[in-house]
Amino acid sequence: MTVLFIINEAPYGNEKMYNALRLAHQLKKDQPETDIRIFLMADAVTAALPAQETPNGYYNIARMLQLVLNHQGTIKLCGSCVQARGMKDLQLLEGVEMSNMAELAAWTLESDRVLVF
C-alpha cells in the first residue's frame, strides 16, 4: 500500500506536522511494506532545514523526517514553495528531494491513500 501525506502547515506553532509524522511512523511500524511518501508544501517546506534546535523535551521535526527517510520513506518539497521562501540555495536534510506539482499529481493518482495535514 502507498500512503501519501501532503503537509501544508509550518513545522512548529501547531501540532499538525508532528501528528502527521507520528501517524507515518506508526503505519510503517505496523505495516513495514507500506510505501510512505511525504510531500511538503507552503510553510511545511521549512521542516526540511537541517540543524533545528529545539528545547529538551520538545519534538524535533527534522529528526522525525530523518526517521521517515531511514525507513525507506520518500520526502519531496514543492519547488515553487521553496523558491518563494528564499530557500532555493539552502542546504536541506540529506535525502529530501525537490519536486513540483506534476509529480504531486502523479503521486496522488498512484497512492492508495492520501492524507492532507
Instruction: Please describe the biggest sheet, giving its number of strands, its sense, and whether it closes into a barrel.
Output: 5 strands, parallel
User: Over all CA atoms, what is the radius of gyration?
Assistant: 13 Å
Relevant CATH superfamily = DsrEFH-like
The CATH topology label is Hypothetical Protein Ychn, Chain: A
The low-confidence runs, each spanning 5 or more residues with pLDDT under 50, are none
Biggest sheet: strands side by side, in what order? 4-3-2-1-5
Beta-strand share of residues: 15-25%
Average of pLDDT: 96
The assigned CATH architecture is 3-Layer(aba) Sandwich
Total number of helical segments? Answer: 4
Distance between the termini: 19 Å
State the share of residues found in helices, binned by percent. Answer: 25-40%
Please state the overall shape, judged from the principal axes of the Cα atoms.
Answer: globular
Q: Please trace the helix and strand order, writing H or E for each element.
A: EHEHEHEHE
CATH class: Alpha Beta
> How many individual domains?
1
Number of strands: 5
Summing up helix and strand content along with how strands pair, one would put the structural category as alpha/beta
